[in-house]
Amino acid sequence: MWCSKQSAESYSLLAFSPLDFGDFRSRDNSQQMTTTQTDGQWSHEEIRIAKSALKKAYKQETEALIANIRENAANVTQLEDVWQLHDFLSAKRHDIDGKYDDREDFLVFTLSKLIKTGLLDKSDLQGLAADKQAKVTVLTRM
Amino acid sequence: MWCSKQSAESYSLLAFSPLDFGDFRSRDNSQQMTTTQTDGQWSHEEIRIAKSALKKAYKQETEALIANIRENAANVTQLEDVWQLHDFLSAKRHDIDGKYDDREDFLVFTLSKLIKTGLLDKSDLQGLAADKQAKVTVLTRM
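^ inputs. structure came back:
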């Protein structure tokens, strides 16, 4: 798929590294994790909620991207359409690569950005401590 | 087209600059051009032939690229397919941007590369001086 019919020149395929939702916590913070909820720290239940929210947003965004490509391919009739698609994918890749930062220290920022862009709703954060929900809400206004 | 449904964030569109086949000769060499064919220099007729060959190859390559995208879009079902498409387009863009160098001093190299990759045939060079055809032939073997 997507191989040139005319040229035997190879091109490198950068392996896509999907987000590993298996271990949601970064290694650096794992030593600090507790099973009880303390101010500023994330309980196991909160991590489960955040993990579920990120998965939901990621699935929604990637499925929409795939649908977008499939639906619009028929509109590619000129070379400038091809490069427009390339620019779009470059921007999307950069955006997605940086958007789902699941390190504990960055979770409130990650969640707030996903809410701002419509990929999550505040209701997806139900179950998080009030201080964390408040931080996310403040960040969505910035 | 190719716009995210979920994010209002804009992305830059690098304007594609199609090759300008209108003036085939580079400015630096235009003073040296003659209407008669001399050793190493390109006559007007030779330039017309080379210009026609490059146009033919460019048209063939870009039309095949567009057809490839349209045909294979239905096979994009996973995110890794999307990034594979992106990698493919990155390589193609880089390749096409550098492949059609129409400066007089580089024409034998340009033509030889197009023959090597099957975008042109030696018969497309009929009408060029024997020394130029020989140079192109030698380069296709390198």
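The helical segments of chain B are 27-30, 44-72, 79-99, 107-116, 130-140. Residues 92 and 101 of chain B are 15 Å apart (CA to CA).
thumbs up if we can close this ticket
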